[in-house]
Amino acid sequence: MWVRPSDVICNIKKMIGKQFDESSIQEMMRRVHFNITEGPGGEPCVDIHGLQFSPVEITSAILAKLKDTVLLYQFHHESKVVICVPAFFSKQQKEHIMSAAHSAGLKILQLIDESVAAALSSATVENGTVVVFGMGSGSYSIAILHVSPDTNIEIITQISDPALGGDRFDDVLVDYFVEQIIHLHSVDIHGDKYAMMMMLAEAAEQAKVVLSSKSEVTLSIPDFPISAQGPVDLNITISRIKFEELVDNLIGQIKVKCQSILKDAKMSIKDIDEVILTGGMARVPRIQRIISEVFGHCQSTRTAPEEAMVIGSALQAALLVEDEQELSEYMIPLSIGIDSGEGTFTRVIPRHTPVPTKQTVKIPGWLAYGECKHVRIYFGEHAMVEQNLCLGEVKVANGRRCQGCVNFELTLEVDEDYVVKVTARNADDQNESADDDWMACEAFQIKEEDRCKERVKRAVKRALLDWSMYNNRIDASLRNLARHVMNSLRDIVSARKDELPENLCQDAVDALIDLQNSFSRDACLLKDKMLYALKVESKLLSWIPTSESVGSHGADYQNGDK
């Protein structure tokens, strides 16, 4: 970036739908490091190596890159999107965004306000009033919204400032660092627009981020070329208290706006049910204190501020697609699955599967001889079983004369009358046709009122809206269990490596390495490697006499689906 800082483009959103001679564009030209020129239609363009690129073209390239990234992680190529835009966007700016999305091969389902997307990402308030405070690098906005039980969100009032964002805070820090350089080294670098000032700008942004979690930070730039005598190692320390003093004027402007929006809405603190923060600048402690002082509420922590609008837009897209779908009476309206441990839901038969149908799932469990395990069957879409309908439970038992990891096969069969027949057997038994292999057989009826369209839509919406909160919980649960399995397998290998066959020991070592490496990957891969490690562990334990078996680690099958 330091070699060609003029090739790095940022804040293109501020240029889209504008004219070159507008004051905001002229001001932007004085602040950015890339070249802005006038296009053939009077619009501002970016000049890169003598070529002009319009804001729509650059936005289209960004969206196309995002589309390609998403396609790497999904199994279909349908590119329907919901895009959230700032509150201050004009009709022309929105049209340019839609044009850029179309050029990128995207089908726009809806453009929504950023504050609406943020409100969707939280959704702890089913019927009430929420405040959304959003502040990113270029602008900030405050909105008061009413949320109704059917997830309709109405903007009561909102205000925004497209000229006040995190960049202004960075500029204050850069000016402070320049003053310190003058004081320490008697060199004024204001005239260097590119190399040195860009280095300072990036360092200032990093310092601002650190000051959100620490009371002091030292800006360190080795070999900083500030004089003809040669580079120096630049080290400047700034405290959070000093930073807050420097930006006190900006903070004051934000506080006044927060106070005025309550007055405009004719509301008081007691009328607000929740405060939602969005954007990286919402992590600044001084800003958080201002929000608490004005609105009198602790901010929602369900969603990271940087992710709130993205998650809200994705949820809105899912809800719109759900509304478009027509449910056939010969399809299962909601998924049927099991409690896979710690209250998480594992789908066995996905929703929209035609009936009749039958699916089988393996469930590993640690049981002593004769010990029973109760497996509950659920109907719904929520990540947590407590939010789904419990159809009943089936009891399985360890019929082997040893303790350890026992694999059960659970078969769910649904007929045209929506009767769910559940059978279970010991998957480790070789004779699959023997009658005594089948340990349990139960049947449950899915009632007609539980399959009605309104109840199904309500269940799907709640599952979507709660996904962001419970997904992190499920992921943490899965990773904790995988660590437990890894430690247990490692203990067995360490204690019995001289007694076990060499090939089994090597399988265990390979399983441990694969499981360890999968911690940095996605949850589905981690789940697969964990189940394989459990299978290897079961083989190892079969060589150990029952009286000497290693103690139980209590591992049950966990949901790795997202």
Automatic annotation (TrEMBL):
The name under which this protein is listed is Uncharacterized protein
Molecular function as annotated in GO:
ATP binding
Its taxonomic placement starts with: Eukaryota, Viridiplantae, Streptophyta, Embryophyta, Tracheophyta
Q: Name one Pfam family in it.
A: HSP70
The record's listing under Gene3D superfamilies reads: 3.30.420.40, Actin, Chain A, domain 4, Substrate Binding Domain Of DNAk, Chain A, domain 1
Keyword rRNA-binding attached: no
Assigned protein family? Belongs to the heat shock protein 70 family.
Q: Which UniProt keywords apply?
A: ATP-binding, Nucleotide-binding
Coiled coil (residue ranges): none
